[in-house]
Specification:
This protein has twelve helices and nine strands. The chain has helices at 44-54, 70-80, 100-111, 135-146, 156-164, 179-184, 196-207, 234-253, 261-278, 283-299, 311-314, 328-350, and strands at residues 4-10, 31-37, 60-64, 86-89, 95-96, 115-124, 127-131, 175-178, 211-222. Strands 1, 2, 3, 4, 5, 6, 7, 8 and 9 form a nine-stranded mixed β-sheet that branches. α7 runs parallel beside α8 (234-253), α8 (234-253) packs parallel to α10 (283-299) and α9 runs parallel beside α12 (328-350). The chain starts with a strand and ends with a helix.
């Protein structure tokens, strides 16, 4: 059994296939490489076969979807082909620090954690910046680990920090996880064109008994102009609403609502306006997003008018409360309500 299964989904990836050789520079060489073609329309499949033939000394497993599944479904397919103790999902058009596999697998070995996440270095044109973990998240992760896989024992403040915001960043490619955790709990990516990574990450966090963070940017994410997350289409809007539905059902099933209700509603509205702005300048898609969001709220009994928010929350009373520990739960709750009320007000102004 290899130490790590490296799973990479690919679609029309011919320009990036030569970059796969960077994996041979990893300081940990005990891994299998699983490459899954998502019905590419170029020569990706033929080039993958050539790549495997050119590297007979490496454990390379090739797979091809019967029909286009998107990145989430393609990763699920790759998992069925894996046999490693640990699993990591990488993207073929990014870069990886040579110590990525070694440092992440060693942290799992040393701590017996279920999941480890590393920092990210983002390359956006000529600009480069790091996404690391702040002290507040590190503190809340420690509290989360102390609950030993029972998030119901935590207060809303800790749950919000780990699950919703700032969270551990939803991307799959900076995470290594015990394969048994994924198999045992049937954790999979929903087949969406957007947001499948957050749904997957939240499932893992809710099942992991211990989570480790590595404060180094071991993964180099290259931001491309054709990123799926920036697409403008009806399919994008439908996927976004499906993501909200998935998360709402996940939190409900885990019995974390109403404890997380205010934080979740803020995340919902804040994310909605993030995507609304990304859909600019496409007013038809913006309108579609708003109307579908309204239908989603009605279906799940989520307040979509400010009058549903308690008066003390709408008035922003949290601003005058002391920041002492004894007032923290009330202050946090009122602050979330105030932020939600402001976003809902803007939502109704745009409808």
């Amino acid at each position: 059994m290899p130490k790590v299964s490296v799973i990479i989904p690919l679609y029309n990836a011919v320009p990036y296939l030569p970059d796969l050789k960077q994996l041979w520079e990893q300081t940990l060489q005990d891994f299998e490489l699983i490459l899954v073609d998502d019905c590419s329309t170029d020569d990706t499949w033929a080039k993958l076969q050539e790549f495997k033939d050119q590297n007979p000394e490496r454990t390379i497993i090739l797979a091809r979807n019967e029909h286009n599944l998107g990145p989430g479904g393609t990763r699920n397919h790759g998992l069925t082909k894996s046999s490693g103790e640990y699993v990591i999902f990488l993207d073929g058009d990014d870069r990886y620090d040579p110590t990525l596999l070694e440092k992440m697998s060693k942290r799992l070995d040393d701590t017996h954690a279920d999941l480890v996440c590393c920092g990210i270095r983002v390359h956006e044109g000529a600009q480069t910046y790091d996404l690391l973990y702040d002290k507040q998240l590190l503190k809340q992760i420690a509290r989360y680990n102390a609950a030993q896989g029972d998030p119901s024992q935590l207060d809303a403040y800790a749950l919000e920090a780990v699950l919703l915001t700032p969270s551990i960043h939803p991307a799959p490619w900076n995470k290594m996880v015990r394969r048994d955790l994924l198999i045992q709990h049937n954790i999979a990516f929903p087949c969406l064109t957007f947001g499948e990574d957050r749904c997957w990450a939240m499932q893992m966090v809710l099942k992991a008994q211990r989570i480790e963070l590595i404060a180094e940017p071991l993964y180099h994410y290259v931001l491309h102009d054709n990123s799926l997350s920036l697409a403008r289409s009806e399919r994008f809007v439908a996927a976004f609403i499906a993501q909200l539905t998935f998360i709402n059902q996940l939190l409900t099933k885990a019995q974390l609502l109403p404890k997380l209700q205010d934080a979740w509603h803020f995340q919902l509205w804040d994310t909605l306006f993030t995507q609304y702005n990304r859909l600019s300048p496409s007013p038809d898609f913006q309108r579609l997003l708003l109307t579908q969001a309204q239908a989603f709220c009605q279906a799940h009994q989520i307040p979509s008018t400010p009058e549903h928010i308690p008066l003390l929350g709408r008035l922003g009373l949290y601003k005058v409360l002391p920041k002492s520990h004894s007032f923290l739960p009330l202050r946090t709750k009122l602050k979330e309500q105030y932020r939600v009320a402001r976003l809902i007000k803007r939502f109704n102004e745009l409808l």
